[in-house]
Amino acid sequence: MANRHLQRSVAMQSLYEWDFKGYPNDVIMDIVKHNLDEFAPGLEGGGGFASRLTEGVVKEQATIDRLIEKCAPEWPLEQIASVDRTILRLGIFELLYGDYDEVPPKVAINESIELAKSFGSDSSPKFVNGVLGTIYREMGEPMKDDSSEKRKARVDSLREEAESVGAGGAAEGGVSAEVDSASEKEAAQD
């Protein structure tokens, strides 16, 4: 397993444990350290990538959760399976705050889909792909004709929109792309 994929997997497992058990934010790095020791002993370069992802998701969770609610409106956050919710948080963090030179957006989406295949239900990969694909399109498909100024403007716009959704219900205009997989997931769980 590649170093980054392994670290992303450890980050996902750590965030899942943190969310599932309702731990306070200040214990997340202890969970990451334990999981790195348990699942990635002798990891080259330590677990810096896993630590950055985990800390970032916890720090930006409110904004990330509002984007999930906006892009999967038929799925209240608490009704999304914990594993799927954790994978989405990780993928959204990489899309919004990641270093595109290190991990391009499409790679972040594909990695999230792979995590969903490994840890989620049969419908998880489609659901994760649908939500992350919507966000990617809302961002203007970064890395296609991208400049750092354009990217910053798009990310700022998405953050502002997510904040307005959190503050006053649904934002005007809504999402331009429909999340087909959300309804597929709903049908699969019936």
Rg on CA atoms, Å? 16 Å
User: How much helix, percentage-wise, in residues?
Assistant: 55-70%
SSE-based structural type: mainly alpha
Q: And the CATH topology of the largest domain?
A: N-utilizing Substance Protein B Homolog, Chain A
Count all strands and give the number: 0
- How many H/I helices? 9
Q: What value does the average pLDDT take?
A: 83
Distance between the termini: 35 Å
Our estimate of the beta-strand percent is under 5%
From the spread of the alpha carbons, the general shape counts as globular
Helix/strand order:
HHHHHHHHH
**Domain count:** 2
Using the coordinates above, name the CATH class of the largest domain: Mainly Alpha
Assign the CATH architecture of the largest domain: Orthogonal Bundle
Describe what you observe in this structure.
This protein is mainly α and 190 residues long. It has helices at residues 3-21, 28-39, 48-59, 61-71, 82-97, 105-119, 124-138, 148-168, 180-189. 37% of the residues are buried.
Which features does this protein show?
0% strand, single chain, disordered C terminus, mainly alpha, globular, 9 helices, 190 residues, 2 domains, 69% helix, N-utilizing Substance Protein B Homolog, Chain A
